[in-house]
Fold:
Amino acid sequence: MKKIKVTKLEKQVLETLASLMYAELGFSDVNFEYLQEETKLEKSTLTGVLVSLSNKGYIFTDEEYKDSSDNTIFYLGDDMQGLVEEWVTESKSIFNESMWLQKVELVS
Structure:
């Protein structure tokens, strides 16, 4: 298990984002509004946390892939994909051992 040190708010946002990942490895349909609704954070606070997480490479966006309302979608970066337990399991069935996702624990 890989332990990664983050702030309390970063941990809240990352764990929430990971909990909203329900489909195949790497997929996301989580936009800002959905994340704000789930975390209950003020817009400015959530924006600051997302910028911090993006700067650290823990999350990313892809401007080419937006939802039907043209909202930006947030994805977990490579180091954070191990937060999604189903993805850790799935990686073991589709990749060789050297590419398996490692389970992640966030420490604040």
User: Anything to note?
Assistant: The beta strands are 2-5, 30-31, 59-66, 72-76, 104-107. The radius of gyration is 14 Å. The chain has one domain: 2-107.
